[in-house]
């Protein structure tokens, strides 16, 4: 049976999920999102987790700064449960940084970027690990956020309103009618089945893989994939995001995630040929840690859990490389540029500007499909699960009292799911207990994720629940999830075992690099002993 859609969106990152949500809000409910892996499995999941408010770019790229400022405030309003309820402190220590701070404030004033000058004493009182040698400090609206739950919230907001979301469905070809893209050939990787979908319009939001998609239609676009490595600490050296007042460079920020009790050191900028081949660099991590340690000396004593990378979808028609390429968004009309109709591409940009990127892409889609731009409400309507900090705290207390879940775990639970937290426990009360002490994940989340959030394996489960993203990296928690999956989800022992081992193997890749750094060597040895030694499983390789 032929499947026909108004629009098919390629890419399950923050831009693609933002596009599918915007489409259904404007009435295009017969829309489909295709993602070759899982939601937030690519660039979005490997980002620095900084919800920029414009501070980082206000001197070097003022248009991007304007966009980040606008969208930071939008996300705080429409999906508050995924935004860390803190701000940021930016500091200057050297003469050069002091000079930069003056340019920064002038540009911030020009675009209305809010900031507050605070004394060195106040900054170091709030953040005791900051060196007393800093000379200047600003408070801004930049903060941390949960990139996984934001992607998932956008996708399921769209799904609730009528769109289809298909993860683990990879686009492998374009269906052409002359110079028009009329559909796509798709591989269902779960069922190993190839099928076709047809659409009036294809929106390519595949991030650094955008050119691979357009090449299926007969033309390439000048993408410059750029790797950013991130180091993840097992503690929060600071309460807020800390940044260095200077032109964007490697290691100029530490994102502290209040809901998750981790901190992310970032980020580097290295051009790569293949976005699927981008391992974190040991030298990159060392350079970044040395840089941030200039303002937080004790950072060198913190334990690094793992390394990860995200590949930026940079676009340029020139010869620029790395940090010289704009972080601005690019909307490409291929009918106008290459003479190929039926497909547009939205690329570039920042995680913080993804909703705005979706808006401009859907504006163009409206013009092509109905001849005019329909009103956009994606910046006003609350997203799936939206709840304020105060509402989440009240709900957490009720959960604690009813289900006897520790308050700390209840708070983290409501931070992940917002207004749906109580519903999850009502549906799956038998699993209402903590199975991951590090991230305070609750067993009911395993059932909910598999049954209602399109989870196929435990790697997908991690993105929904953060299982194994804390100090123990899944060593002890993941086999508990396997037990729940077998008992409550009717998995066979072999299926549950496959989920557990696939997860352990995936975690090992990031732990391996951190173990070489020295911090994770004891845990890596313990994981080896448990799963390879005692369990005799052939896992924990880098293949």
Automatic annotation (TrEMBL):
Name recorded for this polypeptide: FAD-dependent oxidoreductase
Domain FAD dependent oxidoreductase, residue spans: 6-354
Source organism, top-level taxon: Bacteria
Family designation: Belongs to the FAD-dependent glycerol-3-phosphate dehydrogenase family.
Keywords: FAD, Flavoprotein, Oxidoreductase
Phylogenetic classification of the source organism: Bacteria, Bacillati, Bacillota, Clostridia, Lachnospirales
Alphabetized Pfam families for the sequence: DAO (PF01266), DAO_C (PF16901)
Cofactor: FAD
């Amino acid at each position: 049976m032929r499947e026909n859609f108004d629009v098919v969106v390629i890419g399950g990152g923050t831009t693609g999920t933002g596009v599918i949500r915007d489409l259904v809000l404007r009435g295009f409910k017969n829309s489909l999102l295709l993602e070759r892996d899982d939601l937030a499995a690519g660039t979005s999941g490997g980002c620095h987790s900084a919800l920029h408010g414009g501070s980082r770019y206000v001197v070097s790229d003022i248009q991007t700064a304007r966009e980040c400022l606008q969208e930071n405030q939008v996300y705080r309003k429409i999906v508050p449960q995924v935004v860390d309820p803190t701000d940021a402190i930016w500091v200057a220590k050297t003469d050069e940084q002091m000079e930069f701070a003056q340019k920064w404030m002038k540009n911030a004033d020009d675009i209305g970027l809010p900031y507050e000058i605070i004394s060195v004493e106040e900054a170091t009182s709030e953040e005791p690990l900051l060196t007393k040698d800093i000379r200047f400090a600003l408070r801004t609206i930049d903060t941390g956020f949960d990139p996984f739950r934001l992607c998932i919230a956008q996708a399921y907001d769209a799904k609730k309103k009528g769109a289809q979301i298909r993860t683990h469905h990879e686009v492998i070809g374009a269906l052409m009618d002359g110079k028009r893209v009329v559909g796509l050939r798709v591989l269902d990787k779960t069922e190993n089945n190839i099928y076709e979908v047809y659409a009036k319009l294809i929106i390519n939001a595949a991030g650094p893989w955008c050119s691979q998609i357009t090449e299926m239609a007969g033309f390439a676009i000048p993408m410059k994939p750029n790797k950013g490595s991130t180091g993840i600490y097992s503690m929060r050296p600071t309460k807020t995001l800390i940044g260095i007042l200077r032109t964007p460079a490697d290691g100029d920020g530490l994102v502290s995630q209040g809901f998750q009790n981790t901190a992310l050191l970032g980020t580097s900028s290295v051009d790569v040929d293949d976005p699927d081949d981008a391992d974190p660099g040991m030298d990159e991590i060392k350079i970044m840690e040395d840089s941030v340690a200039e303002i937080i000396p004790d950072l060198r004593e913190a334990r690094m859990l793992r390394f990860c990378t995200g590949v930026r979808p940079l676009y340029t028609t020139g010869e620029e490389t790395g940090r010289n390429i704009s972080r601005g968004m690019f909307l490409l009309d291929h009918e106008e540029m290459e003479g190929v109709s039926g497909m547009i591409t939205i690329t570039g940009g920042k995680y913080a500007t993804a909703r705005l990127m979706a808006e401009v892409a859907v504006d163009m889609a409206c013009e092509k499909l109905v001849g005019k731009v329909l009103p956009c409400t994606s910046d006003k309507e609350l997203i799936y699960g939206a709840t304020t900090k105060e509402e989440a705290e009240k709900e957490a207390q009720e959960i604690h009292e009813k289900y006897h879940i520790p308050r700390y775990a209840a708070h983290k639970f409501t931070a992940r799911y917002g207004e749906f937290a109580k519903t999850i426990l009502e549906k799956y009360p038998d699993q209402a207990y903590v199975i991951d002490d590090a991230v305070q994940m609750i067993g009911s989340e395993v059932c909910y994720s598999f049954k209602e959030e399109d989870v196929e394996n435990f790697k997908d489960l991690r993105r929904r629940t953060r299982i194994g993203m804390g100090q123990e990296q899944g060593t002890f928690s993941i086999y508990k999830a396997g037990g729940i999956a077998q008992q409550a989800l009717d998995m066979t022992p072999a299926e549950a075992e496959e989920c557990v081992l696939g997860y352990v193997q995936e975690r090992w890749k990031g732990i391996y690099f951190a173990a070489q750094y020295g911090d994770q060597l004891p845990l890596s040895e313990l994981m080896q002993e448990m799963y390879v030694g005692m369990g005799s499983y052939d896992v924990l390789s880098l293949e």
